[in-house]
Specification:
Blueprint lengths: L11 H10 L11 H5 L11 H14 L8 H20 L8 H5 L17 H12 L1 H4 L10 H15 L8 H7 L7 H13 L3 H20 L8 H22 L7 H13 L5
Helix pairs in contact: 3-10, 4-6, 8-11, 8-12, 11-12, 11-13, 12-13
């Protein structure tokens, strides 16, 4: 196994400190057989200290689990409920049932149990989507099979797994169990580089993945039997993950906007019918 090296431009003291303290899965991404023999492997895919610090910050942020004893956590959930009810009311949506059920939580009595895999950061992303992209997602609330909150949580977890953002000593086992092919060295490098420039790149990626999943599902569901619709949603979620990885793979220093590139990838996939 080969670890990421810290660029030589960084000071020796910083290099020693970071190598002593970092025991992240991002350090032990294996070279594929192709990488071992391909000259493209020798391009600079090593992360810098600033890139790793941004990566570590996001990893910690997305790994915080919901704690009912913490007021700040309860306030986040309360804020999501109040904001959701306000948005539903302004858009004249039927929310006579339970707000958590309308949002698409599995446990609409106590939605905190749904955050086990994605932590409290998923509350922030769900609320962000409702506030900033409601027109893009509002039709999913009329579909009995599309559970908006669960789709968000699932996407967040799979993207974290792919990018080695999950706090786990058995991350490779989790990746296999969830059928996730992890990002390679270059894809992780590109993501870390983007993260330094924009703290919100992960949030934006998740948002675009959710919108794509909803749009693709709405297009494809007409040809599916009811019992296959949930499986259809899951297959589209994995397709959205592939789109992110392809975008990271094809990203170059000349590329200006990763989200525009991602949208182009999604548009391409929208025109390809699923088998």
């Amino acid at each position: 196994m080969n670890s990421f090296e810290i660029n030589s431009s960084e000071s020796l003291i910083e290099k020693e400190n970071i190598n002593d303290n970092i025991k992240s899965p991002v350090q032990i991404i294996q070279k594929t057989c192709c990488e071992k023999i391909c000259c493209c492997f020798f391009t600079n895919n090593d992360i810098t200290i600033s890139e790793y610090n941004s990566f570590l910050k996001l990893k910690k942020l997305t790994s915080v689990l919901y704690d009912d004893n913490k007021e700040s956590h309860k306030n986040l959930l309360k804020e999501l409920k109040i904001d959701s009810e306000d948005i539903f009311k302004r858009n004249k949506m039927n929310n006579d049932l339970n707000t958590w059920k309308t949002l698409g939580f599995q446990n609409y009595i106590n939605p905190t149990t749904d955050f086990r895999s994605s932590g409290i950061y998923s509350i922030t992303i769900i609320n962000y989507l409702l506030k900033n992209s409601f027109d893009d997602i509002k039709d999913c609330f009329d579909d009995e099979f599309f559970s908006f909150a669960i789709v968000c949580i699932r996407i967040i977890y799979l993207l974290r797994l792919s990018l080695f953002l999950v706090e786990s000593s058995n991350i490779s086992i989790e990746q296999i169990a969830n059928k996730v092919i992890p990002c390679d060295r270059r894809q992780v490098k590109v993501f870390c580089k983007l993260l330094v420039k924009d703290d919100y790149v992960f949030l934006e990626m998740v948002s675009k993945m959710v919108i794509f999943t909803k749009n693709k599902y709405m297009k494809e569901k007409k040809n599916k039997k009811q019992e296959l619709k949930i499986l259809l949603i899951d297959s589209i979620i994995y397709l959205s993950l592939d789109c992110v990885k392809n975008t990271l793979k094809n990203y170059s220093n000349q590329s200006k906007d990763i989200i525009k590139l991602l949208n182009t990838e999604f548009e391409k996939q929208m025109n390809i019918n699923l088998k």
